[in-house]
Amino acid sequence: MRALNLLVLSFLASALTAAAENRIVCYFGSWANWRPGNGKFVTADIDTSLCTHFIWTFVTLQGNQVVSSNGEGVNGLREFIQLREKNPSAKFLVAIGGAVDSHGPKYSNMVSTASSRKQFIDSTVALLKQYKFDGFDVDWEYPTRNGGVPADRNNFVLLLKELKERFTQEGGLLLTAAVAAGTWTASQAYDIRAISQHLDFVNIMTYDFAGSWEPRTGHHAGLRGDLSVESCVKYWLDQGCPKEKLVVGVPTYGKTWTLADANNNAPGAPAPSAGQAGPYVREAGSLGYNELCEQIREGQWTLRFDEKARAPYAIKGNQWLSYDNVKSVTEKANYIKEQRLGGAMIWSIETDDKSGACGEKFPILKALNAVLRGGQPVQQSPAPTPTPKTAEAPKDSPSPTAGQCTKAGNIADPSSCGYITCVDNGAGGFTRYQRQCAPGLCYKASADYCDRP
Predict the structure, then answer these.
(1) pTM above 0.90, yes or no
(2) Catalytic annotation, pick one of 21, 72, 79, 141
(3) Phi, psi for 292 (deg, rounded to 5)
(4) Could you confirm whether 141 is annotated as catalytic?
């Protein structure tokens, strides 16, 4: 009988582990309907078969109350929750916070007393009931940081404990959190063992390890290395987060830099400024995977892979990009499965490649599904070999003084359709580096990127 009980317990444990491995959590940036062209993403674009959990971002904190600026409009809460009709087995959550809303003392003030926490919890439950959500995701970036105070660490535990108790009373609403991955922030912000007790799962933001705030290139979401997915997962597990609750973050965007010297372009190369903004996200230093895929299809980027970090990167003239692709995401999914972790999450669904410019539609999500949920393997199209074209000179022809460096940055090259990067030489002058745009493109000074003439 004892042997039978052990067998049953073993079977249940295996079943629970398998269920955890199947978890694919998809954040949705509800503001994406404002992006131009193919970057526009609305609720109807979501493929509900590719995620087990969907999280709408973001509601915000005003005083001690949860507030939404978009309940009923396009990409709003009401429209989002109606996706349940397409996939009744999926869970739908709403997130509070994010990088912008988390700055300042307001979250610290809210968690500081039992009465203010109760006001917050009451308003949270009211919102979830109003729109019939399955749960709530707390994305406070981060307790003790960005205007916070040391007491946040313990008060955050109290908030989650009281939220979970109330959610249990309300019929078992889900409680999750998006958390900093790296040791430096996580060690100050969280009592990891304590918060893990009250969360159904933990979305660890294993990305943004590097970016244009640093003057050299680096992998922002590498699987291996000193600061990497592996090192952060190990830290969280060592600090007491259960394996089955730890959900590994995967970015659907890249981090970009402008190189000091286009010929020095290995990981770690000097790069004094952010990379050029893309046409959809329109943020210097960042490029959505959807933006990258379109540019890969046009032959604009040279693609490379760092065997040590198990991470791809790409180069276009003096532009350097760290990102994830089907190969690296597949390796991450296999790592999640081998370690029996709680699953994968993406930030965020609207910058995956919905149009299939890289091959299949939603290749990042489908690569995760292939490993974690038995989906079909994803074949990513290789970068095409561009056909050289003769580009016409831009209409705004350069003046006689064009091509002379007067400050650091890029200027039009009067002798070609390319451009010149001016780098301060430290001696009161500039070093000039001539760059060429991809075939068929010309440098557009007003926008600081290569475009069709």
Answers:
(1) no
(2) 141
(3) -60, -45
(4) yes
